[in-house]
Amino acid sequence: MIRTCLFAIAIAAMPVAAAQAAPADVAAAVSAPGRPAEATALDAGRHPAEILRFGGLRRGDRALDLFTDSAYYGEIMARAVGPTGSVFGWQPTEFTQDSTRRDLDGVRQRSPNFRVVFTPANGFALPASAFDFAMIHLNYHDTYYTNERRHYAMDPEGFLRTVFQSIKPGGTIVVVDHVANPGGETRAVVQALHRIDPATIRADFERAGFVFDGESNLLRNPQDDHSKLVFDAAIRGHTDRVVYRFRRPR
Fold first, then answer.
1. Is 3 a residue whose pLDDT tops 90?
2. Percent of the chain topping pLDDT 90
3. Residue 21: what pLDDT?
4. Which residues have a Cβ under 8 Å from the Cβ of 55 and sit 6 or more positions away?
5. Does residue 136 sit within a domain?
6. Which long-range contacts (CB under 8 A, 24 or more apart) does 39-44 make?
7. pTM for this structure?
8. pLDDT digit string (tens) for 89-115?
9. How far, in Å, CA of 237 to CA of 233, rounded?
10. At residue 142, what are phi and psi to the nearest 5 degrees?
11. Any idea what DSSP says for residue 123?
12. CA 9, CA 203: separation in Å to the nearest integer?
């Protein structure tokens, strides 16, 4: 309850999206000066402008960046939605290092319409009908991941139930993740490879109430060996990635 209130208070203080806003100028946001070199070096492999255009991000949107980490997408979205919009990042404390906090402090300084909240993964909470747009970039599989040393574990069904109610009717969520071969037990595959079967993603989101609204093949790579760990030097940064768009029904 306290964490939900913290989100609600911070969000209430941020700008409200204008009706019928224009598409966000994501290309300008990606090319704008000031982004860290570590982030811009990833642009060629991630195609953020194309992905956000596919997602339908608009100026003035209130956007949500889940598992924001160093806010690679959070900073781009904050620039793209403009001063009448806002971006809220969520990051699990179990995987938040001092360097992560420093990176996010820098994003907040460069983009005052970006905010971030850190909570334990099992304390994940969001206010209702708060966001027009959401992004989960290369992390939905982590809702199936566990780490006993860090006391990290999540419930994918509960996570999506919270995300669903936080998005406004008609709002959109984009999910990008590393592709796994079909047929494996999801938690075992995630634990070993940090990959997930796209069919599992779609089934999970539809079970939560979302409507499938499109797929982009921009990040697919048929040369990827799905049996490799995504951090393997032979494929890191070039994995076969699925891009799905879902919508909350009106």
1. no
2. 89
3. 73
4. 133, 135, 172, 174, 245
5. yes
6. 39/70, 39/72, 39/75, 42/72, 42/237
7. 0.91
8. 999 999 998 999 999 999 999 999 999
9. 9
10. -70, -10
11. G
12. 33
Residue 36 located in a structural domain: no
Q: What is the CATH number of the domain that holds 183?
A: 3.40.50.150
Q: Across-strand partners of 135? A: 65, 174
- Whole domain around residue 76: which residue ranges? 2-12+43-247
| CA 234 – CA 23 distance, rounded (Å) | 37
Instruction: Say if CB 124 and CB 160 are below 8 A apart.
Output: no
CA dihedral 120, 206, 75, 131 (to 10 degrees): -90
Looking at residues 157-163, what average pLDDT do you find? 97
Position 156 in a domain: yes
Please report whether residue 8 resides in a domain. yes
- Per-residue pLDDT of 177-234, as tens digits, reads 999 999 999 999 999 999 999 999 999 999 999 999 999 999 999 999 999 999 999 9
| SS3 state of residue 196 | strand
Tally of helices (H runs) and strands (E runs) in the chain: 10, 7
Longest Cα–Cα distance of the chain, Å, equals: 47
DSSP string, 74-119: HHHHHHHH-TT-EEEEEEEGGG--HHHHHHHHHHHHH-TTEEEEEE
Our count of domains for the chain comes to 1
